[in-house]
Give the backbone structure.
Amino acid sequence: MPNPIADFRSDTVTSPSAGMRSAMAAAEVGDDVYGEDPTINRLEARVAELAGMEAGLFTTSATQSNLLALMTHCQRGDEYIVGQQAHSYRYEGGGAAALGGIQPQPLEYLPDGTLDLKAVLAAIKPDDSHYARTRLLCLENTHSGQVLSLEYQQAARELCDEQGLDMHLDGARVFNAHINLSVQIADITKKYDSATFCFSKGLGAPVGSMLCGSADYIDRARRWRKVVGGGMRQAGILAAACEYALDHNVTRLVEDQRRAEALAAGLSGLSYLTLEAQHTNMVFVRLASADMVVPWRQHLAQRGIVVSGEYPERMVTHLDIDDTAIERTIAAANQFCPN
Ligand SMILES: *Cc1c(COP(=O)(O)O)cnc(C)c1O
């Protein structure tokens, strides 16, 4: 793809900046399977502290973090309660079932990206040999860009405590929630037993995620990481990119949200487009009919603007989308839609 001016498909499409690449080149490294990579050790301790948890485990991807999280909370024949559109259930190849023998109990999301806690309670199976053992509730924050309130997450924690469930956060985009709510990361993550973080979404690193939890939990997750082939060697080169991302690319997430708001404002009220929603760095628009999706995508592509061509269309802002890109996209959409 010849350098598009704006690629809205996802916040994963960013390229590491010159500063990030030089931090990677300069990283001190060692063999992390022996626990000897100083850059990874420093990153694990730093993210654990941010999370308000005892320990961290550097992983290849948020998919791997979620898999390790589920396999560490649950045994074969156990069950986790999760959203129908949750990444860890729908978009991770069924890994928990395929590799962990863990049964999902998916529930429909409410429109605000939460799971109805009454429905969660009703889904918990009785302690009886007919049923899988319900062990875990898995929430996602942000979910499709939507931020979960601290009150909701606290209520979920209380339910889990009453029912003896563990609680895992898929926080691949929890940095966006942290910026949106203006609260500490730990204010969110401390409500959970474990949390996944991702550095290759809005934070702009090429690779890298982190699972955090208690020291004992992370010891057990580390064993599963080795089992699934996730033990890495001189991967401090990658951890250095993540450190750089924490230093430079967290507070600027407010810019992504501001640009998503500007994009949403500029796309609303056009004849062929309905603005469905805007949450943090995501904008959702629906074309007047599904057969407009291909012409829409082509019209934008001719102007150097890349979209997924989904229906509805999700447009995501990130490090490599500036104000000019937003203005040009709004102008292109205006050309596409007759008055
Ligand atoms: C992208 C995403 C993941 C998976 O991240 P990878 O690093 O691409 O494996 C997990 N959960 C959520 C909510 C995500 O958006």
